[in-house]
Amino acid sequence: MLATIYDTDSAEQIRNIVNNSDARLLIVQDSAMREKAEGAVEECPSLERILCIETGALDEIKAYGAGISDEELDERIDSVKKTDLCSIVYTSGSTAAPKGVEMTHEHYCQTALNLPDYMPELLHNKKNTILLFLPQAHSFARAINYIVVASNMHIYIATGIKTLISDLQVAKPSIMIVVRVCWRRCTTPPPRGRPWPQGRGVRLRRGGCPELHEGNLRQRQGQCIDPCPPRGLRSDCLLLTA
């Protein structure tokens, strides 16, 4: 079972999540997170070890996996039922202590297996790509990962919200899941003297259906962004809001 933490979580929040989920192994991204987790092994009864990706955790995990026999792996896989707990997804803790939601294997798999039938032109096209900027601790990001595995799309994972524009230019996604902060960053006006990008995009209106729009990119104060597409997106990109 997997539980999640955000890189913005405090040392106290990390310990609360570890204790609440009865985690045995804590994996952090970098030395800064490792410092926040310092002492957690002694303070959290269930926790046995802390690994840091920045200092070689992936090699340690691969070495551990190499020591597991195929028979033992098959036995563990066969023992898993769809109603078993797959993950506890915690909130970011920005307004209160992180709260966990229990997700079963069936929760993720039903979404991943059913959605491609509703969006076959997008998810079954091998030429399509998706740029994921949400942190992997986010419940929606986890669901998207499962959906991509069950489809034919290629996924790019952004390095962070601060590099979103450059990541867009690399990935050139045909579909992108966006939230308001992402949308605002994508539609920041260009430097003085430079024109708005031209292209085809999706006009998103509050309370209405998306409409295809051709023209330039601009922002209307006090209203939803209208029209698009943001800088770096392919001209035929479909934007979905979360």
* Radius of gyration using CA atoms only: 21 Å
State the helical fraction. 25-40%
Percent strand: 15-25%
The first-to-last residue Cα distance is 26 Å
Low-confidence spans: 197-242
The DSSP helix count reads: 10
Overall body shape: globular
List SSEs in N-to-C order: EHEHHEHHEEHHEHEHEHEEE
Structural class: alpha/beta
In round numbers, the mean pLDDT is 76
Give the strand tally.
Answer: 11
The major pleated sheet works out as: 4 strands, parallel
Query: What is the topology, as strand order, of the major beta sheet?
Result: 7-6-8-11
Walk me through what this model shows.
The chain has about 240 residues and is an alpha/beta fold. The chain contains ten helices and eleven strands. The strands form four sheets. A four-stranded parallel β-sheet has the order 7-6-8-11, with helices on both faces. A three-stranded mixed β-sheet has the order 1-4-5. A two-stranded parallel sheet has the order 2-3. Helix 6 crosses helix 8 (about 140-150). The two termini are about 25 Å apart. Mean pLDDT is about 75; it is low at about 195-240.
Summarize the structure.
With 242 residues, the protein is α/β, with parallel strands linked by helices. Helix content is 35%, strand content 20%.
Secondary structure elements and their pairing?
Blueprint: E1 2-3, H1 11-21, E2 25-28, H2 31-36, H3 40-43, E3 49-52, H4 57-66, H5 70-79, E4 85-90, E5 100-104, H6 105-118, H7 120-123, E6 129-132, H8 139-149, E7 154-157, H9 164-171, E8 175-178, H10 180-186, E9 198-203, E10 211-216, E11 238-241
Parallel strand pairs: 1-4, 2-3, 6-7, 6-8, 8-11
Antiparallel strand pairs: 4-5, 9-10
